[in-house]
Amino acid sequence: MNPLTDNSPTVTRRHFLRAVGVTLALPVLESFQHRSYAAGNTQVPRRMVAICAPLGIHPPFFFPEKAGRDYAPTPYLETLKEFRNDYTVISGLSHPGVGSTHDSIFSFLTSARHPELRAGFRNSISLDQFAAEKIGDQTRFPSLSLSAEGFGLSWTRSGALVPPDLFPASVFARLFLNGRPDEVQAQARRLRDGQSILDTVRDQASTLQTKLGSRDREKMDEYFTSVRELERRMVVAEEWSRKPKPKVTVPPLQNNTVPADLIGKTRLLLDLTHLALQTDSTRLVSMLLLGTSQVPPIQGVAMGHHDLSHHGQDPNKIAQLRLVELEKMKAVRDFLDKLKKTEEQGGSLLDRTMVFFSSNLGNAANHSTKNLPVLLAGGGFKHGQHLAFDPNDPPPLSNLYVTMLQRLGIGAEKFGSSTGTLTGLDAAA
Amino acid sequence: MSPRQTAVFVLALAGTQFGSDASGADMRPFFEQHCVKCHSGDEPKGDVVLDNLTANFAEKANRELWERILEQLETGAMPPKAKPRPPAQEQRAVCDWIIAQVTAVKAKLRETEGRVVLRRLNRNEYENTVRDLLGVEVKLKDALPQDSSANGFDNVGDALHTSSFLMERYIEAAQLALDQAIVNTPQPPKSETKQVTLHDAHQVRSSTEKVFRKREDKSVVMFSSSKWVAATLFYIKDRGRYRFSISASGVQNAGKPVTFSVNSGGGGMGGPKAHLVGYFDAPAEKSKVFEFFDHMEPKTSITILPYDLPSAQSVSKIGAESYDGPGVAVDWVEIEGPLNETWPPESHRRIFGDLKQKSAPIFNQSTRVEVVSDDPAKDAARILTAFARRAFRRPVTDAEVKPFVALVAKRMEEKSSFEQAVRAGLAGIMTSPEFLFLRETPGKLNNTALASRLSYFLWSSMPDDELLALAEKGGLGDAATLHAQVERMLKDPKAAAFTENFTGQWLGMRDIDFTEPGARLYPEFDDMLKASMLRETHLFFEELIRHDLSITNFLASDFSMLNGRLAKHYGIGNASGWDFQKVSLPAGSHRGGVLTMASVLKVTANGTSTSPVTRGAWVLDRILGTPPKPPPPNVGAIEPDIRGATTIREQLAKHRQTESCASCHTNIDPPGFALESFDVIGGWRENYRSTGNGKPVTIDGKKMQYFEGRKIDPSDVLPDGRKFANIDEFKKLLLADTDQFSRALTTKLIVYATGGAVEATDQRQITEIVAKARAKNFGFRTLIHEVIASELFGKK
Predict the structure, then answer these.
(1) Which residue in B144, B168, B433 is closest to A205 by CB distance?
(2) Is this prediction's pTM over 0.80?
(3) Which of B500, B437, B387, B424 is nearest to B126 (CA)?
(4) Could you give the CA distance from residue A284 to residue A282 in angstroms, rounded to a whole number?
(5) In whole angstroms, what is the distance from residue B130 CA to residue A251 CA?
(6) Minimal Cα distance from B68: which residue of A?
(7) Which residues of B touch A162 (CB under 8 A)?
(8) Before B344, cis peptide (omega within 30)?
(9) Angle (CA) B579 B583 B586, round 5°
């Protein structure tokens, strides 16, 4: 069943050109895309979901012992058995120069070196934002940065955090609900106020730039670039705002208000992601799962997840940790299942969506950042194997990122600390 | 010599002339022999190309490549293991040369551009500034993305970046804040006084469990501390300031008071998170009225919950009517508000003065009014000029305000009303770089820049009217005036931001919630203990400022600020309840100073186990200012083991036998071992708590779920050979040489106060500040004055 009702009106190119005095290379909007696609264009939309479990995944329950296609499933992979040929499990990878602390989360999708250094660290662009620069204008939302934590995984080229979306209900509203007429009107006025404001402060910044020393000027350049980028986004957003939003048949998602409900929150974010992909509202999603210190409402679990991840080899704690992580794996399984069952013009959504599930920690018990647990599902690769690399001399995780970028149709040769693409992972014929 | 004339150090080119030392001529053979072969050509290894590397360190990208090379050499990652090693001496010379070049260029940059890089307001500062600029309480911080830190603080300009996403949030935040500062109703929301009993609380009304005793006098007794039976009261309709009072007494507690907590501002399902108002001690059998004020958002409420009483289940098993344990009897709760002194409120008049409002209904607000003007151009210019002066924290010229006046005119042409257009202009000013960045020009700061530096240091916010007016008159040039202003500012309630943000980062207090110790190992841990820990550190910090007590108190003190909960936790005295007081620490308390505060001990542990490495590294970084180098990439961290068969000391012993590990661990581990006598919540311990091996433990007749594990050994040897047996002896060793600590603290104060890193070339000035403070007995307030009077503070 396809809950999508395509009721897009015709959009004329002319609409684009009323703007704020910025000259733009204008993107092709969804309606064109959609029509040409339906008319037999064979270019398949490619998508990516990058998920991080910030408290690691207990390695012995995750990594198979044997490399290759006939590995015996581990307890966590057993959960995904029906998808065995839809994913690849990869061991040994890590980000070079990313130290063993929780701060490694900052570099998870960026691979920037030494986030743990207190003297100062400058982040680089994250995988999803890099991709959004290239293919983000094909959809209403260039990307979504979802998070069940206070921060997120996505970073801009300037090294600033992309503010993550913390409330699924608001994202749902943004994606699918049309406001009351007075709200729409007020919003339109604010948008135009915003455009005038940007116009004014841009000029102010360019006057300022000339008066500053090189290091200060760098800061003002960042400001100036940010203003320009926002102006550009606002023009596109205004155009999209004239198109009705896609309709979905599910009731609006509600926020999960139980602070400790790790699994409920995970499932909610995954459901939201499924809806966003299915309606082609965005093709790029980053998602940081909860790493709560509170006790999650799971049968048999009496301690917080963070506490359990520091199990200190206590068998009781490891047993509880297993329960928590199994539930997480089941949520991933159900997500893969939904994607697989969603058809899109002759293919399954899963075949067109790379689901990258991993953690910034290889072993959360001692904050090790070596041997990160990596699962890559869907996206149209030759799956069904355990790709094993030597944890003591691995290729950078970014090599996988380059492979993923290329799968998105982006001709990137390099990303972050990459040294090439990841060997052994090939696209399906 | 201009950068262009610098001799180019192109490695792949032969025969280039190398002259001076800075040209790197002597270094060339090293690179040719060990680096260039792999890192050049069409397929350079690791995608690192050294072909175009030059000796022009002034060029940023080139300099950063050098810094990467340096890191590779210093960590031994390059040349790769399979290749011949360069002689150690040669490699050292190359590293030193790179360091010298980088340092020289940076020093030169600082000379011309100043030490501090243009600073954007961080999100704390932004929220506070908007509050003080507009005169409204608006929670904006959480709508802005988290800021990055450098050198331990999130107000360092270098690390504060801007993005289009942030700009979008700034515009939205400004519009939101202006919505609250400017009013569109002709009358204030009606202020009401309402008295209710707990019968009105949803939990009491609808609970089927028998956990509340409803007495004839209308009071309700609460017997349980289970969070889900917290009594939630009121459902605020109009935003504003409210007065609350609660009449309560303690019952059935052998004549002792019973404590309860009040939280406020929670929005229930998906709404804002509540904050703690405080813990209150309800006196035995005699009602007392507790009063507090709070700013409330619509749809939020307050909740009342007894402290440290049994679970709702165990009360309801017996039934509240016959239950004979302690409880809190709440007679009534009163609310008054919103408390508006004038209408339109001060925030509105601050912008529009006495401009009249006229009816401007929209479809669902028939009584709506808007500000109107007979002379829009003139009024807009006047409003925006006054606003910009305060927003930019300095006098403004007409030319600077003109673009914003033009913005208003443009929006009016586009059919916006006067008020709407002015709002756009105001929001524009609040999005301007002059508002969002602290503008300083190289050299000595002018008076207004100095005023801002001062207020962002002590208040994390903009200068107030008095400070700004004084700065505009050039008054801060006078040392006595500056001193008096600092004294005034430290006494102002806004100085709480200094306590919170500085200790939040220096001592890691912001991480207090990062882990939640499990109930099995640490059943005594609770929310009140956590809140008390934080408060002790804050109050201690403020006590040193208030009475100008020596900073050596941070290392070891004979007093602390305790309440009943902490006194119990520390095993000191028999105070009870929430209220804090200065307490003289008895001999053998093992407390005093920040290292042995429960808060610090908690944030340096992981909720399950402690690690001398983590705590030791923390002490080196935060207290001694010598953060250890990160471990080499291929060394695994120790896996904690709490089963009781092995201790961390045994695990570490192996580690320390390896020579390459020992060189750092002889520095890192000793302070960590001294702190091993304290568990993950800062309790004193003689033995580890174990989940597997050990003797059973019984406390107050109750069998604990943990066992008494192996004995703690807190002794160790400092790198210089001085031994200590325990934390008390360790603190004495710290006190024997306070120079390193005072330098470290001063350095951190300078970084925080100015938003710029302290580098090697600044050490002389740090020495001067420390010397001056030492001459005045190292009083903490004195040190703050000396920091402010220093050149590092007074210059960009």
Answers:
(1) B433
(2) yes
(3) B437
(4) 6
(5) 38
(6) A113
(7) 145, 163, 165
(8) yes
(9) 140
Residue B413 burial (CB count, 10 A) = 9
Beta strands in B116-161 (DSSP E): 119-120
The answer, yes or no, to whether residue A15 has pLDDT greater than 60, is no
How many CB atoms sit inside 10 A of residue B45's CB? 15
Which of A344, A416, A315, A350 minimizes the C-alpha distance to A94? A416
Nearest partner of B476 among B454, B506, B505, judged by Cα: B454
Percent of chain B at pLDDT > 70 equals 96
Chain A residues whose beta carbon lies within 8 Å of the beta carbon of residue B39: none
Does A237 contact B at CB distance below 8 Å? no
Q: Which residue of B164, B227, B638, B759 to mutate against A (max A Cβ within 10 Å)?
A: B164
Contact between residue B150 and residue A119 where contact means Cβ atoms under 8 Å apart: yes
Beta-strand runs (E) in B138-235:
192-196, 212-214, 220-222, 231-233
Q: Which of B150, B165, B433 sits opposite A120 (nearest CB)?
A: B150
**Residue B704 and residue B109: Cα distance in Å, rounded?**
62
Nearest alpha-carbon partner for A250 in A168, A348, A332: A168
- Which residues in chain A touch residue B757, judged by CB atoms under 8 angstroms apart? 119-120
Best residue in B72, B165, B176 for a mutation probing chain A (most A CBs within 10 Å): B165
Backbone angles phi, psi at A164, to 5 degrees: -80, 155
Q: Is the distance from CB of B44 to CB of B2 less than 8 angstroms?
A: no
Amino acid at A327: E
Contacts of B403 in chain A (CB under 8 A): 200, 203-204
Confidence of residue B207 (pLDDT cuts 50, 70, 90): low
Compute CA distances B554 → A285, B383, B668, whole Å: 47, 48, 20
Closest CA to A49 of A134, A139, A153, A125: A153
Please give the residue that has the higher pLDDT: either B208 or A93. Answer: A93
> In chain A, positions 194-233, which contact chain B (CB-CB < 8 Å)?
194, 196-201, 203-205, 208, 212-216, 219-220, 222-223, 225-230, 233
> What pLDDT does residue A348 have?
94
How far, in Å, CA of A120 to CA of A122, rounded? 7
Touching B: A residues 12-51, CB under 8 Å: none
CA distance B260 to B302: 13
For chain B, report the end-to-end CA distance as a whole number of angstroms.
Answer: 25
Can you state the angle between helices A214-241 and A181-209, rounded to 10 degrees?
A: 160
Strands B301-306 and B231-233: antiparallel
Which DSSP string do the residues of A374-385 spell out, in sequence order?
A: EEEEESSB--S-
> B608 falls in which pLDDT band (50, 70, 90)?
confident
Contact call for residues B501 and B460 (beta carbons, < 8 A): yes
The angle subtended at Cα A205 by Cα A199 and Cα A207, nearest 5°, is 110
Contact A419 B642 (CB under 8 A): no
- DSSP-assigned beta bridge partners for residue B292: B244
CA distance B578 to chain A (A): 25
What is the β-pairing status of strands A87-91 and A144-147? Answer: unpaired
- Token pair, residue B398, equals 């007409």
Nearest Cα neighbor of B302 from B322, B323, B272 is: B272
Q: Provide the residue type at B634 as one letter.
A: N
pLDDT in tens, A272-321: 999 999 999 999 999 999 887 788 899 999 888 888 998 888 898 999 99
If DSSP codes are grouped into helix, strand and coil, which group holds residue B723? strand
Q: Is A144 on the interface with B (CB under 8 A)?
A: no
HEC string of A256-298? Answer: CCCCCCHHHHHHHHHHHHHHHHHCCCCCEEEEECCCCCCCCCC
How is residue B382 written in tokens?
């006047």
Encoded amino acid at A345, one letter: Q
